[in-house]
Amino acid sequence: MTDEADTKKVRHVLGISGGKDSSALAVYMRDRVPEMEYFFCDTGAELPETYEYLNRLEAALGKSIVRLNADRDFDHWMEVYQGTLPSPQMRWCTKNLKIKPLEDWVGDDKVISYVAIRADENRLGYVSTKPNIEAVFPFREDGIDKDGVMRILEEAGIGLPGYYEWRTRSGCYFCFFQRKHEWVGLKERHPDLFDRAVEYEEKVRYRHTAMKGRNYTWSQGESLPELIERKEEIEAKHRAALERAAKRIKPNRPLLEVLSDALDSDDDEAGCSVCHL
Ligand code: SF4
């Protein structure tokens, strides 16, 4: 087989998380790699704003984004993991609902996977352990930072996903990486989804109280109903953090920067490098 034939077989794929960085990378690569295959791993627990944003992005790309659904849903995997909620230490959700569907989709094809880690970020992107998948980081290589991302989205006319009004990370409505104030935002914007997240907690608590006397919660140190009881306190803390951020950040910076800074003061863990791009 010739080298040329080998080259032809290489697939170029770009995962969209529903967040700003991966969306900007999709736009950035649109004309650079016309054969790019865009995909979105749907956990079945995405926010409605994410689907709306994907539609906007598809219009800007002039191409469909392939939706990859895991064979087994979140509830199945929760049973497999003995009824425990995923957490930063036990991130079985990312592995089974985001990474595995990608690996199944590409199979043994030779693949270059474009990952949207920015030049100003200090975190590792997911690099598949499968030898046929090679990860590349165009933003890092081309020095594109957060301002660059915002410019790309603005020029493409798609802006930011609607959830950025109250939450800065893409992903599942119940994501355990949410900061306290983002949970309050979920309760206000999507009370039905908040209630479903509470149901998961209760199911897990009931099971583990019966089995081992242990509690599991989405948010560290308290259940969601307990967190909501502290809503006023959380909101006051968030307002104070916003004021501090507004003073710290140079004038004329995007509001998103102020919000991110304020939320990071609650918890600045970098989030998931697969789901939050
Ligand atoms: S968004 Fe959060 S809960 Fe959903 S798969 Fe990713 S890490 Fe897990």
Give a description of the structure.
This protein has two domains: 3-165, HUPs (Rossmann fold, 3-Layer(aba) Sandwich), CATH 3.40.50; 180-264, no CATH class. By secondary structure, the protein is α/β, with parallel strands linked by helices. The radius of gyration is 20 Å and the shape is globular. It has helices spanning 3-9, 20-30, 48-61, 74-80, 92-106, 138-142, 146-155, 180-189, 191-211, 224-229, 231-248, 255-264; strands at residues 11-15, 37-42, 66-69, 111-114, 133-136. Helix 8 packs across helix 9 (191-211). Helix content is 48%, strand content 8%. Strands 3-2-1-4-5 form a five-stranded parallel β-sheet, sandwiched between helices. The chain contains twelve helices and five strands. Iron/sulfur cluster binds at residues 43, 86, 91, 93-94, 97-98, 171-172, 175, 177, 272, 275.
CATH superfamily of the largest domain: HUPs
| Distance N to C terminus | 38 Å
The ligands found in this model are:
iron/sulfur cluster
Radius of gyration over alpha carbons? 20 Å
For the record, the count of structural domains works out to: 2
Indicate the CATH architecture of the largest domain: 3-Layer(aba) Sandwich
Q: What is the N-to-C order of secondary-structure elements (H for helix, E for strand)? A: HEHEHEHHEEHHHHHHH
What is CATH's topology name of the largest domain?
Rossmann fold
Q: Ranges with pLDDT <50 over ≥5 residues?
A: none
State which percent range the strand residues make up.
5-15%
Q: Summarize the amount of helix as a percent range.
A: 40-55%
Largest sheet: 5 strands, parallel
The largest sheet has its strands arranged as 3-2-1-4-5
Total strands: 5
Sum up the overall morphology in one term. globular
User: How many DSSP H or I helices?
Assistant: 12
The average pLDDT is 87
The CATH class name of the largest domain reads Alpha Beta
Overall structural class, as computed from helix and strand content, comes to alpha/beta
